[in-house]
Amino acid sequence: LAKTTQPISMDSYEGQEVNITCSHNNIATNDYITWYQQFPSQGPRFIIQGYKTKVTNEVASLFIPADRKSSTLSLPRVSLSDTAVYYCLVGEGYFNKFYFGSGTKLNVKP
Amino acid sequence: DTAVSQTPKYLVTQMGNDKSIKCEQNLGHDTMYWYKQDSKKFLKIMFSYNNKELIINETVPNRFSPKSPDKAHLNLHINSLELGDSAVYFCASSQDWYEQYFGPGTRLTVT
User: Fold this and answer.
1) Which of A94, A99, A102, A106 to mutate to test the interface with B (most CBs of B within 10 A)?
2) Angstrom distance (rounded) from CA B70 to CA B53
3) Does residue B46 belong to the interface with chain A, where contact is any CB pair within 8 Å?
4) With an 8 Å Cβ cutoff, are A102 and B42 in contact?
5) How many angstroms separate the CA atoms of B97 and B79, rounded?
6) B93: Cβ–Cβ under 8 A, 6 or more apart, which residues?
7) Beta pairing partners, B48
8) Is there a contact between A73 and A13 (Cβ–Cβ < 8 Å)?
9) Cβ of A50 under 8 Å from any chain B Cβ?
10) For residues B78 and B85, what is the distance between their CA atoms, to the nearest angstrom?
């Protein structure tokens, strides 16, 4: 089971771009990289998923280098409402036991 | 319409009691999950059902028993509750394995 390492917390200001990096050195060939967001007192919410290179959706971008041993979640122009915990997960398939880890607590300041 | 709902939202009970948490999803998903989030915010998967069949059964005490009467429902029954069972329990569902939809959580407090 590939584990992930993320910074415990990050601070940012409104309007800035935020990049959260996740390390997953023992990622398997079939593993995908998935990011979730969790607001206080709510369940996690899916943000984005990728396998290699770059993936972009209306919420975020995900950058994955060629060796896939790390990934970076990029949030463009954050607002106060982006204050949350962000989890990086790796795995594949229904039998995958998603390991959420401790996540990165992002604090966006005015 | 709530996609994944859980009842109750809060549950306070004494040690030794038996309690159940119910989960329902109206997304038509085939797979449902139970997660436990402890006070340190670590979120751990407990069980997963696919079309009413148990496919993931993590190492949890056998006091925890999931039941899936149909693919839209996944209930969690806990026997002989202990102090260490206090946590927030999340139900989730998915059609694609990676995009899980979580319920609002049930905060269980055992006194």
Assistant:
1) A94
2) 10
3) no
4) yes
5) 29
6) B3, B4, B25, B27, B29, B31, B32, B33, B100, B101
7) B33, B56
8) no
9) no
10) 9
Contact present, A99 and A61 (Cβ < 8 Å): no
Residue whose tokens read 């269980």: B108
Tens of pLDDT along chain A (110 residues) come to 558 899 999 999 999 999 999 999 988 888 899 999 999 989 999 999 999 999 999 999 999 999 999 999 999 999 999 999 999 988 876 556 677 778 999 999 99
As a residue count, chain B comes to: 111
Q: Which backbone phi and psi does B29 adopt, to 5 degrees?
A: -75, 155
Among A98, A99, A105, the strongest candidate for a mutation testing the B interface, having the largest count of B CBs within 10 A, is A98
User: Scanning the structure block, which residue is given the tokens 């946590």?
Assistant: B87
CA distance B10 to B24: 16
Question: How does pLDDT run across B10-45, given as a tens digit for each residue?
Answer: 999 999 999 999 999 999 999 999 999 988 788 888
HSE (CB half, 13 Å, CA atoms) of B80? 3
CA distances from residue B17 to A60, A100, B20, B67, B81 in whole angstroms, order as listed: 45, 30, 10, 18, 5
Tell if the CB–CB gap between A93 and B97 is shorter than 8 Å. yes
User: How far is Cα of residue A108 from the mean position of the Cα atoms in its chain?
Assistant: 16
Minimal-distance CA residue of chain B relative to A93: B97
Taking the Cβ of residue A93 and every Cβ of chain B, the question of whether any pair is shorter than 8 Å is answered with yes
Residues of B in contact with A34 (CB under 8 A): 98
